[in-house]
Structure to design on (657 residues):
């Protein structure tokens, strides 16, 4: 009851503040409208913007805490800078909802993460205010450097402003970009949004005063004069003077690291105090020196109406009741694949003390929070550093440990060179547990696990598995534990399993051996991964049409079960492969084997491959995404009937509509 009362009072404060006249937010469609407001009105505007975001996300779900934490910062940036001519690049994009509301998209904000709606991330095709698309972290500074250098070439005075969170600063790419930022000069401004680590905690009035002074034109002019004088001094004296100035400021403000990387550091300042933000941002906007880094301290989830309890759960939320805060989650019908994996890994680790687990800043998303509670000393969260995670795992494997690098499919793409060079070439037994395989729904094209089968199966020395159901996932965990002479990977989708009975203990599978799920004689469907349930539905439909159908679960994309493929080709008129991956994956490997083995020489054999379409699919529900992709039971039936030259496939589609 206390929690509800506190939440309602927060919302009432926002409403009362805007009661006297038309809400300021209603007067702002674009940042040019925002700039017509007086500075003293911006706090009320930010309150209304925060309330609008809370209301919108309650009806759509989405990333929540990050956006709430940058409401004042978003307001100040668009007020001070001339966007969209000045380019604002949000790192990751989790925090972009307030930005979208005030850049001409408020009327569509309740379509976030839905089919034909707004993306949950920044997207170039969506708005000129999104100059660079995001969704994976730590890219903003590199992009901003590129934009700033291009402005120099093109003779433009426009700025490039990168907003990057302290969590994203754990990725090496951010430092690679900063190391090369000097060439961007004063066209580049990086805003470090420190909402977790608190790199330098003092953010009170004195800190704000110092930040204003240190970013002022007068101070920068004096500093530049001092540098010119230092250049005329003997080299040793000039170096001493420069270091004395930088380290003195570093001791007061915490900026020594950034100064060493070539940035002029300002901060830290309170990211929720607009009176502090405006003069500092105006100073850095007008500075002749650069690049400049502004250190802003914010509170993730600021103004959250449901209190700070379990704040980590509000990074992303489903739809919720805006009055009670109750999350609108449907009751699961079957265990979640991620939970099945986590429990299976814990079970294996109880019997094998060599097993360790690694995540790249996603312990909850990958299920390693469960493993971490059971084995805290054997769990490693390396931050947003997938490249390091993979090579770290390789190092562990050289000394006889059994590392499980547990990473989303889309994030493992970031470490492909390490997978190739540091793991596969050396035949090190790193186990890759690949979550979010296939299409993932609301996060859309940037988070789809479309390519891992293709990019892993092409590598020598790699074993690649895909779970057709949650029981087989348990066995694949045990299989990965047993493989100690080469790397292995197993993939599994987001969401619920098929509701099959789970084994108490996983049993290692025979490497490269599939399984027959259902015997038939005319059509064979060879499935890899999470489409197995739809394949079984399609097979029963085909049986009802008098078309006897075999269902085979390949289990392995590499090595292939060659004997099973030969048998399917020899004893069926139609062979269909199906996978939730891109072209060049499982189906391509099957076709290559069949061609080399002479199995395609039989003219009466008809082969069809079903895979994800050769596009980047936008966000929608997973069900609709797979419908669009043509990978449902009705599409499988249609493919089989077309292969046989039958024209009754429309009836098959309507039966499963």
């Amino acid at each position: 009851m206390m929690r509800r009362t506190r939440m309602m009072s927060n919302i009432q404060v926002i409403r009362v503040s805007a009661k006297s006249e038309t809400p300021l937010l209603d007067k702002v469609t674009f940042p040019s409208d925002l700039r017509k407001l007086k500075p003293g009105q911006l706090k009320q505007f930010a309150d209304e913007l925060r309330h609008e975001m809370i209301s919108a996300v309650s009806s759509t779900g989405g990333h929540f805490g990050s956006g709430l934490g940058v409401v004042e910062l978003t307001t100040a940036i668009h007020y001070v800078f001339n966007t969209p001519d000045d380019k604002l690049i949000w790192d990751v994009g989790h925090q972009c909802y307030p930005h979208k509301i005030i850049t001409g998209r408020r009327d569509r904000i309740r379509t976030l993460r839905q089919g034909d709606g707004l993306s949950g991330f920044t997207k170039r095709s969506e708005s000129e205010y999104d100059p660079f698309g995001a969704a994976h972290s730590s890219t903003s500074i590199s992009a901003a450097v590129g934009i700033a250098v291009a402005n120099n070439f093109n003779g433009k005075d426009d700025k490039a402003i990168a907003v990057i969170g302290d969590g994203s600063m754990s990725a090496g790419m951010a430092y690679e970009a900063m190391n090369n930022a000097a060439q961007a000069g004063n066209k580049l401004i990086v805003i470090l949004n420190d909402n977790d680590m608190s790199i330098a905690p003092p953010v009170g009035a004195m800190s704000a005063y110092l930040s204003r002074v240190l970013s002022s034109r007068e101070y920068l002019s004096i500093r530049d004069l001092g540098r010119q004088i230092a250049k005329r001094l003997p080299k040793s004296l000039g170096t001493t003077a420069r270091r004395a100035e930088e380290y003195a400021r570093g001791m007061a403000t915490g900026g020594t690291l950034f100064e060493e990387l070539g940035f002029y550091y300002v901060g830290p300042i309170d990211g929720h105090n607009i009176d502090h933000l405006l003069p500092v941002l105006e100073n850095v906007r007008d500075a002749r020196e650069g690049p400049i880094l502004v250190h802003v301290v914010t509170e993730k989830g600021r103004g959250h109406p449901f209190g700070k309890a379990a704040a980590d759960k509000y990074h992303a939320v489903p739809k919720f009741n805006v009055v009670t805060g109750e999350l609108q989650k449907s009751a699961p019908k079957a265990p979640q694949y991620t939970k099945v994996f986590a429990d299976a890994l814990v079970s294996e680790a109880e019997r094998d003390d060599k097993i360790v687990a690694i995540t790249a800043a996603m312990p909850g998303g990958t299920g390693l929070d469960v493993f971490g509670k059971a084995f805290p000393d054997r769990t490693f969260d390396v931050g947003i550093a997938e490249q390091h995670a993979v090579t770290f795992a390789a190092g562990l494997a050289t000394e006889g440990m059994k590392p499980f690098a547990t990473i989303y499919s889309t994030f493992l793409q970031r470490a492909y060179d390490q997978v190739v060079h540091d793991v596969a070439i050396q035949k090190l037994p790193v186990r890759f547990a690949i979550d979010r395989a296939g299409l993932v729904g609301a996060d859309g094209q940037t988070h789809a696990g479309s390519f891992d089968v293709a990019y892993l199966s092409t590598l020598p020395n790699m074993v690649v598995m895909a779970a057709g159901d949650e029981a087989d996932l348990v066995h694949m965990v045990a299989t990965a534990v047993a493989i100690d002479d080469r790397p292995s990977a197993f993939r599994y989708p987001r969401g619920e399993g098929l509701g099959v009975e789970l084994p108490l203990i996983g049993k290692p599978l025979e490497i490269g051996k599939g399984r027959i799920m259902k015997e038939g004689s005319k059509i064979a469907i060879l499935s890899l991964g999470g489409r197995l349930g739809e394949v079984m539905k399609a097979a029963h439909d085909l049986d009802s049409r008098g078309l006897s159908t075999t269902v085979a679960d390949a289990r392995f994309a590499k090595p292939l079960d060659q004997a099973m493929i030969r048998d399917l080709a020899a004893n069926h008129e139609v062979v269909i492969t199906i996978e939730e991956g891109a072209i060049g994956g499982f189906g391509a490997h099957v076709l290559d084997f069949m061609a080399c083995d002479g199995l395609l020489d039989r003219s009466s054999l008809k082969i069809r491959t079903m895979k994800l379409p050769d596009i980047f699919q936008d966000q929608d529900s997973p069900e609709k995404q797979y419908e669009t992709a043509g990978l449902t039971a009705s599409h499988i039936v249609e493919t089989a009937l077309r292969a046989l030259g039958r024209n009754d496939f429309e009836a098959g589609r309507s039966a499963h509509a």
Observations:
- The two ends are 45 Å apart (CA to CA).
- Residues 1-19, 197-203 have pLDDT under 50 and may be disordered.
- DSSP finds 27 helices and 19 strands in the chain.
